[in-house]
Amino acid sequence: MGSEKDCDQSNNLMIELTQGRELAKQLRDHLNHTCSSLQSGGFLVERILSSYEKALSMLNFTGVYLGGIQCTISSSESIPSLANSSPRSEDSERNSIRDQPHKIVLKKRKAALRWTEQVRVDPETGGEGPPDDCYSWRKYGQKDILGAKFPRCYYRCTHRNSQGCLAIKQVQKSDEDPLVYEITYRGRHTCMLASNAMQPSEKRQKLCTLQQEVKQSLKVKSEELDDKEQIFPPFTLPQTESYIFSDSLTESSDLIGSFSPPFISSSTSESNLFSLIDFQSLESDHTEILSNPTSVTNSPIGDVDFSLDPIEFDPNFPFDSPDFFV
DNA sequence: AATATTTGACCGAC
DNA sequence: GTCGGTCAAATATT
């Protein structure tokens, strides 16, 4: 168990899976240029991607493997900067965000991932309320936050009960600019592709329209980053992307998880949707989410899986099982 | 009727 | 004790 040979095999497997996934992403981005393609080929690509995500999640490898393996990142996607940040309180974190707009901040802890976006809504096209995304959320709470003008709203995925999707998000209006929403995502969506599989074409069409609207409404002013800060290309969120982060390139074994941002992939040069994204893993998220009485029965992907330490990877996992790559 | 939202209560962390 | 996050009953909406 845990021999170098096993390690090499799993590494090779990761490389192959990652390459396949990246190619599928490129195909998806290509198809995303037209709405109609989303309804046909796009759906197939999503399924292909889903398979790759599952496989990689089982390997606890859902993005950039930091353990010495090169992996291909398509030019149309952006992996957030591995910029570091020392631990700090959420308030000081927020202040730092404002001091350095557009800077992508990562923080690493152990298990689940948490990331924050600051989204400016176009008052004309965005309308009232927080910006929409391609997932359906159900509000489950609202809280006045100390020192904040506006309350924080808590949302969970609508499919939490039906599909065991454990994704949640928090939305809070910015103190300084009411048009800016700070949206914190936690947990991974496991519902989207499965639900899409059962959606009629008109829903896919609606989704596509929504994507266009989101593109319009979530535009934020785009300023150029200093080259020193712009470790990765300008950030755009793919639709079913998964990332894995670490606060240090040297901490190869500390893979912290995957995520599926619910936003649109864009390979164009249009304005970035987000001025800032702050990634943060939370150790406590893990038990929190797992304590949910709703068991996850539909998918092996979830917080449970991506929290597994790579060392715990079982080289005897039946990858050759006919049911594995579904 | 089914589903979503509101909102006070509750709980754990600090 | 406070605070942030979640629960769940009541209420609203579809």
From TrEMBL:
The keyword DNA-binding applies. Pfam families: WRKY. It comes from the Eukaryota. Transmembrane segments: none annotated. Signal peptide: none annotated. One of its GO terms (cellular component) is nucleus. One of its GO terms (molecular function) is DNA-binding transcription factor activity. Residues 132-189 form the WRKY domain. The keyword Cell membrane does not apply. Keywords: DNA-binding, Nucleus, Transcription, Transcription regulation. One of its GO terms (biological process) is response to hydrogen peroxide. Residues 78-87 have a biased composition (Polar residues). It is found in: Nucleus. SUPFAM superfamilies: WRKY DNA-binding domain. Residues 88-101 have a biased composition (Basic and acidic residues). InterPro entries: WRKY_dom, WRKY_dom_sf, WRKY_plant. Its main location: nucleus. Belongs to the WRKY group III family. This is WRKY domain.
